[in-house]
Amino acid sequence: MQKNITYLVHEGCQSTVPVEMTSCIGSCVTSSMYSAEANSMTHSCSCCRELESSQRQVEMQCPDGSKVTHSYVHVEACGCYVEECERTIRPPAQTAMYVFIFLF
């Protein structure tokens, strides 16, 4: 998990204190392998994402002098989330072939 301390800005208002922003960054296992049992390729896909998050609030100061409370998402835990792999099979790029015949 990556942590960053910053001021939040929302609709022109800025947090009165810096807040810790967290995000998920990392790599997870994705694979394609032949299965003799299925007699085909099997695919396993996963992505790095939040597994647990919470709502937090911060006071914000607006340009007109008013103060508002803003809610934001704070990531508590990250991990690899298993997803269904894209089923679209893209054919290999086709190369155009031109044949020129000259008759004399």
The number of distinct helices, counting runs of at least 4 residues, comes to 0
CATH class: Mainly Beta
The number of distinct β-strands equals 7
Rg for CA atoms = 26 Å
Keywords: Disulfide bond, Secreted
GO cellular component, one term: extracellular matrix
Subcellular location: Secreted
Pfam families: Cys_knot
What does this structure look like?
- The chain is mainly beta.
- The chain has one domain (2-83): Ribbon (Cystine Knot Cytokines, subunit B), CATH 2.10.90.
- Helix content is 0%, strand content 57%.
- It has strands spanning 2-6, 9-10, 13-15, 19-23, 31-35, 40-61, 67-83.
- Strands 2, 3, 5, 6 and 7 form a five-stranded antiparallel beta sheet that branches. Strands 1-4 form a two-stranded antiparallel ribbon.
- The termini are far apart.
Q: What's the short story on this structure?
A:
The chain has 104 residues and is mainly β. It is built from no helices and seven strands. The strands form two sheets. Strands 2, 3, 5, 6 and 7 form a five-stranded antiparallel beta sheet that branches.
Indicate the topology:
Elements: E1 2-6, E2 9-10, E3 13-15, E4 19-23, E5 31-35, E6 40-61, E7 67-83
Antiparallel strand pairs: 1-4, 2-3, 3-6, 5-6, 6-7
Task: Output the keywords.
5-stranded antiparallel beta sheet, mainly beta, 7 strands, Cystine-knot_cytokine, 104 residues, 0% helix, CTCK domain-containing protein, disordered C terminus, two-stranded antiparallel ribbon, Cystine Knot Cytokines, subunit B, 57% strand
